[in-house]
Amino acid sequence: MKRKAGIILMVAMALVLVTAVAYAITITIDGVREVAWDGGGSVTDPNEAGVTNDGFDVDVIEWTNDTSNFYILLSTYAATGWNTNNGPDFPYVYFCMNTDGLASGTANICVNGAGGYDRYIRIAGPTPLTVTVFDQNFNTIAATTDVATVGSITEISIDVTSLGLSTGVCGAMPSSAYFDGRTGDPDDNVQDAGDFNMNCGNPTAVSLHNATASGPSAVLPFALGAFGLIAVSTGLVISRKRKNA
To answer: Higher pLDDT residue, 12 or 197?
Structure first.
């Protein structure tokens, strides 16, 4: 009986291991969209005829967070033209955020939005991209190189304290985005009028990291090993039952 109970305990531990591994899938700031982004928030923007270069036309903006960092993913309809110098400089995008929900901020840059923005995040070309966080008066709060772009995907990570979110907890944050391709085309605004609500404090079930994170290739062997342990253990139980029958 004790041996049987021990085997059952091993099966239970294996199930816990599989669950833990499933929740250990991570996201890396590498310019490659992982399924971990599916648990966060997002806003889509239409493919606008006026923006003739799809590399400057926003498709999707996604965001999520953990207790330390706020993550944003930008996707364009074609490979983002960060290295296209149309003079006098390279393309850039601003995320304008009302992190405190007050109307006391400014309405610079994202002029199609509702205003009241107290944080501005700028991603600027060329590669390697630079990311800068400004306050409502455009004083620099933080700068980071935690950014990566591949093709049409750009990912960034900003520490929550630079956004005034010391614990990574907040309500809805009215936000807007502005992509200036530095061309004669109309600039792309998300939304075309008004704001969308970013939010934090409800991170996805996965762990979010920005360096040397283990991906599905690392998860699979552990999961298979756990399933193997379950199979072997179950086989022992069945075999023992048959022998004692």
So the answer is: 197
The tally of CA atoms less than 13 A away on the side-chain side of residue 135 is 8
Handedness of CA 208, 212, 218, 222 (dihedral sign): negative
More confident residue, 13 or 195: 195
Measured CA to CA, the distance from residue 113 to residue 91 in angstroms comes to: 20
pTM of the model: 0.74
Provide the residue type at 119 as one letter: R
**pLDDT tens-digit readout, 215-243:** 333 333 333 344 343 343 434 332 333 33
Tokens of 216: 């599905």
Instruction: Report, as an integer, the average pLDDT of 144-156.
Output: 96
127's CB contacts (< 8 A; 6+ apart) are 82, 83, 149
Tokens matching residue 71: 């993550």
Measured distance CA(134)–CA(61) in Å, rounded: 20
**120: amino acid identity, one letter:** Y
Q: What is the dihedral of CA 214, 30, 122, 80, to 10 degrees?
A: -150
Is residue 148 within 8 Å of 30, Cβ to Cβ?
A: yes
